[in-house]
Amino acid sequence: MVGNIPLPPPRLLFYLFFSSHGRERRRRQNSDPKWEKTTVRFSSHFSSSRSINRFSSSSVLISDASVLDGFLAVAVDAAKSAGEIIRQGFYQTKHVEHKGQVDLVTETDKACEELIFNYLKKHYPCHKFIGEETSAAFGISELTDEPTWIVDPLDGTTNFVHGFPFVCVSIGLSIGKVPTVGVVYNPIIKELFTGVLGQGAFLNGTPIKASSQNELVKALLVTEVRSLRMCGSLALNFCGIACGRLDLCYEIGFGGPWDVAAGAIIVREAGGHVFDPSGGDFDLMSQRAAASNSHLKDAFIRELNKSE
């Protein structure tokens, strides 16, 4: 245990060796007007066969912070490209289908997932992939220890259909079943949340931290109930915790790991907690998740358990 953040498996202990140089480099990259050039440079470097072979197995110790910078750069590039599709479609007539009785899917969801997966697979063909739309069609793949990209191409589809600008692209990378890299991008209001294990969390290049609220009665809590819209995007709710806009968030029975894979690492790197609403450990595949600042977790769990 380091502070309030549990250590990942030994194969991920590389983050203990990250220096402040990596954090400062990320801040410069995210705020640099020449970001596109930076992205291309990283993308080219990490698409090499040597890099792919080196990181195709989670049994290999990752010890170079620049590797994670490369993962992040590729994910940000993919998120921004998909975000442009979302931004254009946001102001146009939508063609909507239903997944079940409540969930919606549009051609924008499908186009964004195809774009993101094609881009990621071009750079990391040996990695595994889990996406919302492909999972809806073929079932959710098992999460293994291998590097796995977990993608929600358009979190907040109902909001998107109704013209409510609380929508985002969510791209997370899990290694050893531990959320390691996260990108959440709202292209309508142009907010880019990023987080990398051991390197902090950022909003548009500026470091963010969870709130310091320590009284449950004064906390701002958000949750979701099917068909009753609160915010409509669990990924953005988690980012709200990370940057201190929200104090607590929980949801049970959400769509799948794509809703939380990116947000979980962003919350943790901002000093917050991610956990099961029962108080147990967070399970990426359980469809049960809660997030809070560092002060409210225990009090929240006690009150939630009283209400059940």
Folded structure, characterized:
Pathway: Polyol metabolism; myo-inositol biosynthesis; myo-inositol from D-glucose 6-phosphate: step 2/2. It comes from Zingiber officinale (Ginger). Its EC number is 3.1.3.25. The two termini are 30 Å apart. The strands form three sheets. A seven-stranded mixed beta sheet has the order 3-4-5-6-7-8-9, sandwiched between helices. A four-stranded mixed beta sheet has the order 10-11-13-12. Strands 1-2 form a two-stranded antiparallel ribbon. The chain is globular, with a radius of gyration of 18 Å. α8 packs parallel to α9 (261-269). It is α+β, with helices and mostly antiparallel strands. It has ten helices and 13 strands. A hairpin with a 2-residue loop joins β5 and β6. Residues 1-29 and 31-63 have low confidence and may be disordered. Helices cover 37% and strands 21% of the residues. It has helices at residues 20-31, 35-46, 49-54, 65-90, 107-123, 132-138, 157-161, 234-242, 261-269, 297-307, and strands at 96-99, 103-106, 128-131, 148-155, 168-175, 178-186, 191-196, 200-203, 206-207, 221-223, 248-252, 273-275, 288-292.
